[in-house]
Design a protein that fits this description.
- By secondary structure, the chain is an alpha+beta fold.
- The chain is built from 18 helices and 17 strands.
- The strands form 4 sheets. It has a 5-stranded mixed β-sheet, sandwiched between helices. Strands 7-6-10-9-8 form a 5-stranded antiparallel β-sheet.
- The longest helix has about 70 residues.
- The radius of gyration is 51 Å and the shape is elongated.
């Protein structure tokens, strides 16, 4: 990342035109802050919208919850009147003989009229009285109105068991369907039940149930839905859905009551539903233990903010275009004289040394123009004096050219062979010739003593490839050199001869004639440490000692290449630096090269392709 930023900086600093730099600078200083301001404004608007909508949602939930609580209180009050009405309880206690039909009918009419007066609200669908008396069915169960039923039935016993463990006013049951046997229609209702008491001794004498249409709750709950696509629902204290504003939409979102309970328990206000994000709000409904919930699509809430953002971006785009056009005009106007000066400077390459007739000025461009004119005057003044020196230089160049004839002739011949091999589709021969050309270019190094470590390693790689072509790829090469030290300088023809010695006298002397040369490197205290490791046959202590002997004292079987490298290191770098060896027979050899860590400085880039 650091290197990438550095390269980008260098491109901006040295390669771009001045007008482009000015334009980019204007863009960075104006457009980016403007875009940031737009995005921050959108973020602030979105946050404000969310807060305002949440407040509006909470108010809507509270109002709807208050309305529901009032309806529930009315229902509870009505059931309480019926449960503790003295006249009704007196009728329920009667145990008139079943043959006294006239008295029984009169009691039924009295109870029916009283209860109809209590349950006269449109919020009620029907009521059922389960008593221990001998009342007959006034109407079939499920029909709108009032029904008298004996407590000694399945439903009565079930209600009695449920109410025995309940200590509140009215016990509510989840939505269920009841059928009108006459009209053959089904109605989904919410049923509430409570005991009827004999006021004098507070004894249970029956059960009264009221059925409230679920549609009533659905309509009320729907008032809490304030946006298209939003859902409201009412949960009882048992976790059952009493009412849902839009059941099909609830299913489409893939929501469940259990998920909503988990979100409420953990205090979450965001729910993921079918890939959409929903804003969750909830409030308790009075003392009933019920919970009113509202779910609103997050994207719908932000639509107003999105429109505002789009408008702001459009305005910013138009302003940016106008600004860029203006900035382009100004930048080109400011750089006009600089471009003219640069064009005149380029004409110097075509021997145009005439001064620039520039108007007087005190800015930087005028200073550059005056300096350029002064430079041209100096060039013209020295032109004549350089003529004679040029003649002598030509003679020197001729001699240097003659000294380069042989290397150039070799390179040209190898290049010719390379292309001839390609023409005959001898790709392997072409590659060998190309490697050989590169090998001699690296060896000669344009007559220079120093070479970069990077090029020295390339020299080794080329040599190993040529040897592998010769011996059918028995040699492996591993370079473990960090990139940050490959730019260090090293004497030419030091590293390759060491590798050559390791291959010829180490690896190829093995019975298998295969092996690997590994080169590692590191820098410490301005010293470059290189290790050349091979897994060849190794050397005895006598052979190691013979490597450092001068030519007159060397055994006949020992070459002069390593001693020559040691002498070059000593003469060029000093006695502090050296080439040493460590080896054991059968375990390979390691050559340690220690030289100063100096950066390679080249007058011109090398081309070893």
């Amino acid at each position: 990342m650091k290197k990438w930023l550095r390269n980008l900086y260098m491109i901006f600093l040295y390669r771009m035109q001045l007008s482009t730099k000015l334009l980019l600078s204007y863009a960075v200083l104006i457009i980016i802050p403007l875009l940031s301001l737009t995005l921050l404004s959108y973020s602030h608007v979105s946050g404000t919208l969310i807060r305002q909508f949440r407040h509006s949602m909470d108010l809507s939930l509270q109002q709807t919850g208050t309305y529901l609580d009032r309806i529930l209180c009315d229902i509870i009050n009505a059931t309480q009147q019926a449960a503790y009405h003295n006249t009704l309880t007196d009728l329920y206690r009667k145990n008139a003989p079943s043959n006294q039909l006239l008295a029984l009918h009169q009691d039924y009419r009295t109870a029916y009229d009283l209860l109809n007066g209590i349950f006269s609200s449109d919020d009620f669908y029907s009521a059922e009285i389960f008593t221990t008396g001998k009342f007959v069915f006034a109407k079939s169960k499920g029909l709108e109105g009032l029904s008298f039923i004996s407590l000694d039935c399945d439903q009565g016993r079930m209600l009695d068991e449920s109410l025995q463990s309940f200590y509140g006013d009215v016990l509510w049951f989840p939505p269920h369907t009841i059928e009108d046997p006459v009209l053959h229609r089904e109605t989904t209702v919410i049923t509430g039940a409570r005991y009827m008491k004999e006021t004098s001794i507070y004894k249970n004498i029956g059960i009264i149930t009221v059925n409230i249409p679920q549609e009533l709750f659905n309509t009320i709950v729907g008032r809490a839905s304030t946006l298209p696509g939003s859902i409201s629902l009412l949960l009882d204290n048992g976790g059952n859905a009493i009412a849902i504003s839009d059941e099909s939409l609830f299913r489409d979102y893939g929501l469940s009551v259990g998920l909503l309970h988990e979100c409420i328990a953990s205090g979450q206000h965001m729910v993921q539903a079918g890939g959409d994000t929903m804003l969750l709000g909830y409030t308790p409904v009075g003392s009933s233990g019920w919970t009113l919930i509202s779910l609103n699509p997050y994207e719908k809430i932000l639509e107003t903010g999105t429109d505002t953002r789009n408008n702001m971006l459009l305005i910013m785009l138009l302003v940016s275009i106008l600004f860029l056009l203006t900035a382009l005009f100004i930048s080109r106007l400011l750089t006009m004289r600089v471009r003219f000066l640069a064009a005149r400077m380029r004409e110097v390459r075509f021997d145009n040394y005439s001064p620039i007739p520039a108007p007087a000025g005190t800015d930087e461009v005028s200073d550059l123009t005056n300096s350029y004119n002064y430079m041209l005057d100096k060039i013209n003044a020295y032109a004549k004096s350089q003529y004679q020196l040029g003649l002598a230089l030509k003679n020197s160049e001729l001699k240097a050219l003659q000294a380069q004839i042989n290397p150039h002739f070799l390179y040209n011949t190898l290049d010719l062979l390379h292309w001839l091999a390609l023409d005959y589709e001898a790709n392997e021969i072409s590659e060998i010739i190309s490697l050989l050309s590169k090998f001699y270019k690296l060896s000669l190094n344009k007559g220079r003593d120093m070479i970069s470590l990077r090029d020295a390693l390339l020299h080794v790689e080329v040599y190993v490839k040529l040897q592998n072509f010769r011996f059918e790829h028995p040699i492996g090469l591993k370079l473990q050199i960090p990139d940050n030290i490959r730019g260090c300088s090293i004497l030419n023809l030091i590293l390759q001869p060491i590798v050559e010695n390791a291959i010829l006298h180490g690896i190829l002397e093995k019975e298998s004639q295969t092996g690997t040369v590994t080169i590692t490197g590191s820098v410490s205290e301005n010293t470059l440490y290189l290790a050349i490791i091979d897994d060849g046959i190794g050397m005895t202590q006598e052979q190691l000692a013979a490597l450092s002997l001068p030519p007159p004292d060397k055994p006949a079987s020992t070459g002069y290449g390593i001693w020559n490298i040691m002498e070059r290191i000593r003469l060029y770098y000093g006695a502090k630096y050296s080439l040493t060896y460590q080896s054991c027979p059968g375990e390979g050899t390691t050559a340690y090269l220690t030289i100063p860590c100096l950066e390679m400085k080249e007058d011109s880039p090398q081309d070893f392709s």
